[in-house]
Amino acid sequence: MPAPADDITEQLHSEIERTPSRYRPLLLRSVHSFRDGVEADESWPSASESLREGWTDALVGRVSPVVTLWDGIDAD
Asked: Whole-model pTM?
């Protein structure tokens, strides 16, 4: 079963594919505006917070081999 984030990403890709190409620049601007708004409301974690979270992930085994990093990225 895919992780919830993977499922949402797949849904987003599906919606993008169903969007006519002439509207995709507007869609991209909407996504950028959304991200800018979210980032303004909630700041990015500090370097120490990111390192702490990454270290915790490594300790509990929430890691993936580097060789799988780009699996599935190729478009058909």
From this structure: 0.46
